[in-house]
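Batch 3, record 17
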Amino acid sequence: MTNAVEAKDYILKQVDQAPKIGLILGSGLGVLAEDIENPIAIPYQDIPHFPVSTVSGHKGQLVIGTLEGQLVVAMQGRFHFYEGYQMEQVTFPIRVMKALGVEQIIVTNAAGGINESFKPGHLMLIEDHINNFGTNPLIGKNEEELGPRFPDMSEAYSKRLLQHAKQVADSLNIQVQQGVYVGNTGPSYETGSEVKMLRKWGGDAVGMSTVPEVIVANHAGLEVLGISCISNMAAGILDQPLTHEEVMETTEQVKEDFLRFMKEIIRTLPV
Ligand code: HPA
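Prediction for the assembled complex:
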């Protein structure tokens, strides 16, 4: 039995119904899981083969239950490559979600704005990403039953779910941006010169997560919606240093809009 199947079996023993939608909640955005009804919270450390989360602002549990009438599994806190986890560990929860029967995932993160028309506090729908991790979570032997050796990434972020999110934003009067997310390893923030380069590459926002999970989700045939909370302007754009505190403060400020937005997306998510 694979590790993901063992983890899945353990999780299914704790819940009545298998979740259909996976939620990966980024820095400061884990509050959404607090609104899940009839929640079963399973600490990562209890799940076979699950890594354990270390960064502040990340809780480290799966929460399974009903949100806006939909069966969801939320990761409250994720695993980052910069914490020293292997790519296989960073993306393990996606494999487990797939094994649980999840078909769609919504991935969220805090990111620095590269596009100068963005402002801290904006939400950005991710239309595509640039993998700048210098590695790929699918390197190694391919398990054919999990997905193809050379998975297509031409629609890594579902156009249909992006369209859905845009309509929801309109209906709620929430301003959203749309753009390309660049995934860097971190943990240092970028230099001003790196940010200039990323802008030339076509990046609109930069962060230290999401790309590995989305690659594995595509490999597994999951449909992906990605949302960045622009927590700060990337280095060199404003004449001020970046701090993790600023990132956490901004996500705290947009929390209400983020929650309203996510809930309505989930309530009306097309199957
Ligand atoms: N750079 C990289 N990762 C980030 C940033 C940033 O400016 N803000 C939040 N996560």
